[in-house]
Every structure is written in C-alpha cells, then in structure tokens.
Amino acid sequence: MLLDKRDAEKGININDIPLSYEQKKVILSKLAYWMMKNNHVETGIEDSIRVVERAIQGMGVSRDKASGNIIFKYLLERSGILREPEKGRVDFLHRTFQEYLTACEINREEDWGLLKDKIGNDTWQETIGICIGFAKESRATNLIRATLKKGNELGEEEKYLFLAINFMNSAVEVDKSLRKELEQSVSILIPPKSMDYDNLANAGEVVIPYLENQTWYTSEERLACLNVLKRIDSVRSLEVTKSYLKQPLSAIEIDILGELYSEFRKKDLIESGIAYAILEYINYFDSDQIVILHAEMLFLLMTLETKEVQKLISKKIKKIAISSYDDYYDALLFCNADYEYYYIDPKEEWPCDINCRNLYKVVEAAETIIISGYFSKGNILSKFKSVKNLYIYNQSGKFNIYTVEKCLKCHNKLERFGFVDSAEEYINGKDLDFLSGCKQIDLVLLDNGSEVSFEEFSEFYNLEILVLGADFAEEFLYIDLPESIKKIIILLPEIDKERASFLKDGKHNVEFYTIREYVESVLNGQIGES
Q1: Which end of the chain lies in a sparser environment, N or C, as judged by fewer CB atoms within 10 Å?
Q2: Are 474 and 455 in contact (CB under 8 A)?
C-alpha cells in the first residue's frame, strides 16, 4: 500500500495525522466498502467525509487533532489511492484498489453473508475472488458451493460453474472433494461437444483460460473452443489464441482466428503481441507446406519491427493461401492506402510505414498462391513475380477471369490456374492467352447463367487437365477440347450416377466431385502439384 510510504520517501512529516498505517487502511477500506455496497464508482466528497467521520469514531481520535474532514483531505492528497476526477467528486485511482480494500473490510468484519447475495453480480466478482483468497478452507469451500447452488437455482449451471472455478483458483485451499468435483465438471464441457456455444460464452471471461489449445485436440475441438472465444469478445482472449498458433491450422480455423482479431483495436492487438505469434506460426511450416493466413493476420505483420519483416521476407515463402481478402486489405497492404478514407489513424495504429511498402515482398517469391475473398480490383496479384500455381476464389461478383490478366505480371510462368467465379460469365477461351501455357485449368462457375464454350481452347496445346464446375456442367460441349487433354474433372452441386455417367466415353479419364469438396480442398491448400 502507498499510504505512509509515499510521504516517507519524500521526507514529508506525517506526525500531524495521529493515525497508524493500519488505521488509515481501515478508513479507506470502509470507504471502499460503502461505495461498493451503494454501487458507486465515484461519490461526492461530502459523503466521503461522513464515512470517514463514522470510521474514526471507534479509533479514539480527538476531533481537535484530526477531524474527519482533515483526515479525508490528507488521504485524498497524500495516499496516492484516492483522486478527485472533477471538483466535488472522489474515486479510487484504480478499480483494483477499491476491490482489494472492500475485500479487506469484508474479511475484517467477517461479513461473508453479503457475499453470497453478490455472487453472479459482475461488479462484485473480483472482490469475491479476493475475499476467498483471504478465507480459510472451510469458508472458501462454503462460498464456492454456494456459487454452484445458485447456478442450479437459476438454471445457469455453466456460468456459475466457471465462476466457482475462478473462485477456487483464487483460494489458498479448498476441500479436496470440491476441487475434484469442479475439475470433472470442466472436463465434460471443454472442449465444447456441441454447436451451441452461447451458453458457455455467457460464462464470460472466467472460461477463457480453459479454452487454451491442447496438443491432442482435433480440428473440430479447436474449432469449438475458438467459436466460444470469439463469442466472449474479451481482450483477455487474445493471449489464449496464441496457443492455437503453434501448429498448422485448417482454413476454417484460420478464418475464425482472423475474424476474432478483426474485432479488436489495433492497439490491443499490438500490445498483446499477436503479430509475433503469427510470425512464429509461419515458421512452423516447411517449404513444401502451404501457409494459410487470414488477411487480417497478414495485415498484422505490418506491426512487427522492420527487422522482423525483413527476416520474414528472407524466408521466401513458396506457398501461401490468403483468406477473407477484400478491397480494404488490398488498399492497406499494397496500394499506398488513403488512411483517412479507410478510417485508420497512422499515428496510433500504424507503427511503421516502411512495413506497408515492403510487406508485399513477403509473398512475391511464392510459387503457389491461393487467394479468396470479396475484392474488385485484385491489386495484390501484381505483386506475384514467381507464381506458377494460382487459385482465386472471388465471391464479390465484381471481378472476373478477364480482369486477372490486367493485374497479373507473371502469366507467362503459370502452369496451373484455378478460378472460382461468383459473377455471371461467358467464357470461350478468347482473350485468355495468358493461360495458354497452363497444364491445368480449373473453372468453377457459381452463377447459374454462366456458360463455357471450348472452341477457342483448341490452341491450348499444353493443357492436360481441365477441371470444370457448374450447376449444369454436363451440358457444355466438350467435343471442342484440345487433343492434349488427358483428364477431365467435373464438379457438380451433388453427384448422382446418372449425371456422372454422361461423359465416360473411353476417350477421356473423367472424375467427379462436388463443388463443395473442391472449394474446401482449395482453401485448405490441398491442390496437389501438376
């Protein structure tokens, strides 16, 4: 506690205040407790003086030497614990001081009955935890069992279970049978075994430590935990998410992490060191593995120190998948963004402009690129200098296959090209010369009005594999395909034997999959190499 120490260190005489350290602590504790009981974060000075007056009555302090008014002013000016945020108002410098001192007074007065009524009240949870830390084993056990009982009465068992666990973690000791009971209860809930995550998330921050990733979790179990973390929406969850970035993750796991990060202020993300966790995550991948990143994660790499970005550039990532990419990131990452237009304050949220200019070098050496999202310009494509395998899954409907050539500067190196198109398209091979060197082309047309004519594909002499997906893929005329074609992969919304047999004429090696299977495999980087 600051109290006497602050003045003693400055050589200020405190003998004019006839109170011991313990007495001053009791006065402040009574004030904190009174404010908590009355739901005051701050209160009027006159009310505070009256509380001090009542507190010193049992201390034998002469009003001639120190009235309640004098003692209060001393504590306000010299303790370092109280402050006057505005004229006539007083509060504790930090909420933690108020909670700790309240707990001290409850423990001193043994006012444990009031605590049972406050269990479940968010304002009181930290104070209750501190009180349990002061309590003996029997009393701590009693309060924790009261927590579980209240949860049963209210039909909110999960919320109060995690409150009880939080209280148990604050206690010096509790009954062994209670500890075992709580641990068994948690083992049933974590990781969540159903798709209903809301009840668990309603338990609030107390559940966060239990959602840390474990090495033995399956992808489904990790997803369940991440979904709960996302719903809790607390800065404290950022630290726990780092445990998930210690192994390669699936595209859907990365998407949830990216969505979670995008909900926070850049300041919180920077202070939590998430960018360095992402950097470590990237380093887990071997050169033959594809690095899957949400666009928000790529964006956060800008907050690294410049020397770390340079190390990342020197790593020369060969395979990368970027998900949830849109025009916002396209501008921020690669196009000298107009900060004001995109509501970014460069002084507060942009630690290093040079990273903005250099980050594209992280991906320019990649030979396999998968990019998915809702973008209309695709400026990122102009940064790829070595790409041989390029997959684009654009869901905006504002970007078509003919736009790719305008953005791409390395089309002469392409060996494999895939495009999942949400816009209505008529593709006939004309003006697609930039694909003429490809050994494999994948076209997935999600709009029912789209069509493909293979007449202009006859000069694609290098083309060996064609992947074509559409609602009515069997209706396209495959007779005009170039002679070089060795395999055709047909993607349909659903597979049935009748539809799957129409092209098995012995001329081509034909395989059938669903569009969903194909899209999932691409997003997860399971595309193979030609």
Answers
A1: C
A2: no
